[in-house]
Amino acid sequence: MGREGPDGNVLARFAKDTGFYTLTRFVPAAFGLLGLVLFTRLFDAAAYGRYSLAIVFVTVSATAAFGWLEQAVLRFESDSEPIVPTVLTVVLLVGVGIAVVGAIGAVWGTPRLGAFRPFYLAAVVAVVGTGSFRVCRAIFQARLESGRVTLYTATRALLKLGTGLAISVLLLESIAGWLWGAAIGSVVGVAAMVARLDAQVGEFDRDTFRKLARYGVPMIGWLFGLTLLTFVDRVLIELLAGTAAVGIYSSNYALVQTGLPLVLSPLVQAAHPAIMTEWSGDNHEAMRGLIAEYSRYFLLLGVGATVFAGVISRPLSALVLGRAFHPGYVIVPIIAPALFLWNFAMLGHKGLELAESTGTMTLGIAVAVLVNVAGNYLLIPPYGYVGAAVATLSSSTVYAGFAFVTSFRTVRWTVSKRAIAHVAVAGGVMAGIGWAGYLVDATPLVAPLLAGVVGFGAYAGVLVAFGEIEGDELRKAVGEIGGYDW
Length: 486
Prior knowledge:
The protein is mostly helical. Helix content is about 80%, strand content about 0%.
């Protein structure tokens, strides 16, 4: 049963890049998890809620200012035309513009911020640093230099936690120090990447800029919609249920968002530059086969990881978070499949990216945002943050369906029915074992953890029994990862 795909080497390249992108996610995830352990014990749920809302501001602003350029870099850096000098010049100009606006806001706006006032200056620096970091990292990602992406991302995560903890505890006695840590880590990471690129900042090519803007600017709608889809629930929980509820929801959301993307996001990150590189403009069938193969790998790894996240939700929350945050573990089994479906859709809509159908993508994300907002307004009042989690799952499901339907217009997203059936059976077996672990009341933390481990082993065993995981594939993947040249 051949699995190598259209170019004869899909699994080899996929294994190498996925291995490094997993490491790219793992190191920040480990530091982020440690940060949750510390900060949810040092500060109460309301303080964490305010920090979460400040992060919403930073992410929305950075996406609006820099996201279009990041997407353009991912699309065009693999082309023969040099774009890096122009990209870095644009980053500098946008950063200066944000700094000027931020300085004006510091004079006129901060007295009105109330409890959020300590976050303002850190948020402004973090917007510039985070946005610039994403653009510079995209350059290395587009060049398939996954080892360097790992290095810079890990350095940033270390600085975020270390400096954030020091500033929070020793200087400010406020969780706002964690945001300063993110700002400082991003700025240092940008400086290191720019030095490595050795490009002349200040060079500007108008034709290159127009090319980047033509692709990237129409993406702003989609990117802004994506950011709203990710964070609007926090804002609505604040309005409808209070800041403490935001803290409980956001901390448990962060647990699954920290752990599950260790599996899901690297698969998408590894697939993106490979697909863009193989695209010739008219090789639709080859791209269809390539996306289908990546989708199969995503299913095999992603379903097991998603079920595992749900199974260990209660002990994970109890072990990592402060006591006041523990009740929020119930959202994890809801958010986990939402993240799975969203990342799966990122593979499915690659045809829209290849065709530069940004208007269609924006329409899809707008529909998903409307579903999310409506769901939050309907479900938060009676069900609190659990209702917000259900609204998130609903919107992710809508976008995955949208990606599948619209793919018929570009590069059709096909997923192996055989693989779907096999992972459904294996995932069902794993979920059943996990449910049994919760029936053991004598060990409410240990039993679910053991059930998760045993269930994951059963999941893999079922896939092997079905012939979905083959020895040749595993040996090839492990060999490629082990032999990767940094």
